[in-house]
Design a protein that fits this description.
Belongs to the protein kinase superfamily. The protein is α+β, with helices and mostly antiparallel strands and 362 residues long. It has helices at residues 3-21, 33-39, 78-91, 124-128, 140-159, 214-219, 224-240, 256-266, 283-296, 307-315, 318-335, and strands spanning 29-30, 48-51, 55-61, 67-73, 102-108, 111-117, 164-166, 175-177, 183-185, 192-194, 201-202, 221-222, 245-247, 253-255.
Length: 362
């Protein structure tokens, strides 16, 4: 099926889904271009709230008083239209409290518009590194709530959606926050549907440097564990407010795992936490979360937990994890500065029985 037929297929299917869901809990809208232009003041620059390679995102208000966000494709290329079709197709399949809700879309002529719920607290990256970072609105409980919500959204994609879905672009700018700072995983333009019984696929690399699992970045092997790796990076970012990659003097780049590992070896977990928290965090919870992040970013995908295990770990309580974290810290201290893969054996979780057994090449 060529890309044009695929896009038409997705759009037609989406219209069917909208009609089918009109009477359900998640009513969808079939917007006209006139309605969207009115809501965004003709895409006025003052309403622009974001911009990326795909195009721009605008804030708007419908005639019914509903606040919306509108993603507008910059140019109608085969690549852009494919991403539009994929996102519409994916969002037509999923509904979860931690996934950004789709209100509807418009596709006609040269316009491709996707309408979402507006998120008043913007993206996670805005609070960690952007214009709201200085306000430090994310205290420790909020950060852990955001981590759990993001993990639950991913666990839904990996284990409940049918077929399973790999996001492929988990990062701080793709985690949006509603009025109550509840996390909403967004942007499904790079997502992959995984047929039942498949463990991984080989495909063109998409995503963002600093978050990419090594086997995906180097060989294009994408699996659910690639999202787990990205989540591990995101979790360290939430805890520390450090960027996934930072430039050191001389042009050398250091990733967040390289930065955090020496502190873990020394047991200096307090040094990992965002200084803006001013020490106001649960120290046992901090250790547990850092250890989980290191498990998620294991270089061997077979040793990473599933997202269901990640959710269980994050929600399972600090006391159950305290002994394992203490033992792990002791092991790292004994190992000193030797940073071989063997040092991280204690970070590995048992492989889930739910891992599937066949692979295909796409």
């Amino acid at each position: 099926m060529n890309w044009r037929r695929f896009c038409c297929f997705c759009i037609c299917k989406e219209k069917d889904l909208i009609r089918e869901n009109k009477s359900r809990d998640y009513p969808w809208e079939l917007y006209t271009l006139k309605e969207i232009l009115h809501a965004t003041n003709n895409f006025h620059n003052d309403t622009k709230i974001g911009e990326g390679g795909f195009g721009s995102v605008y804030r708007g208000r419908t005639s019914k008083g509903v606040e919306i966000a509108v993603k507008r494709l910059k140019a109608l290329s085969p690549k852009a239209e494919m991403e539009f079709a994929v996102e519409v197709e994916i969002l037509g399949r999923v509904r979860h409290k931690n996934l950004l809700g789709l209100r509807g879309f418009y596709a006609s002529g040269n316009e491709r518009l996707i309408v979402y719920d507006y998120m008043p607290n913007h993206s996670l990256v805005t609070h960690l590194h952007g214009q709201l970072a200085a306000d430090c609105l994310l205290d420790w409980p909020r950060r852990m709530s955001i981590a759990i919500g993001s993990a639950e959204g991913l666990a839904y994609l990996h284990h409940e959606a049918n077929p399973h879905i790999i996001h492929r672009d988990i990062k701080a700018s793709n985690v949006l926050l509603d009025a109550n700072f509840q996390a909403k995983v967004a942007d499904f333009g790079f997502a992959k549907l995984i047929p039942d019984g498949v463990t991984h696929m080989t495909t063109r690399v998409k995503g963002t440097l600093g978050y990419l699992a090594p086997e995906y970045a180097m060989w294009g092997k994408v699996s659910e564990s690639c999202d787990v790796y990205s989540f591990g990076i995101l979790l360290l970012e939430i805890i520390s407010a450090k960027k996934p990659l930072e430039k050191l003097p001389g042009g050398v780049k250091r990733d967040i795992v390289q930065w955090v590992t020496p502190y873990v070896r020394k047991g200096a977990f307090d040094r990992i936490a965002d200084p803006r928290l001013k020490g106001k965090f649960d120290r046992a919870q901090l250790k547990s979360a850092v250890m989980l992040a290191l498990k998620c970013t294991d270089s061997n995908p077979e040793n990473r937990p599933t997202m269901l295990e990640v959710v269980e770990w994050l929600k399972g309580g600090v006391e159950r994890r305290r002994k394992e974290v203490t033992n792990l810290q002791h092991m790292l201290e004994e190992d000193g500065n030797n940073e071989t893969d063997a040092d991280f054996q204690g970070l590995r979780m048992p492989q889930s029985d739910s891992r599937r057994e066949r692979a295909v090449k796409n």
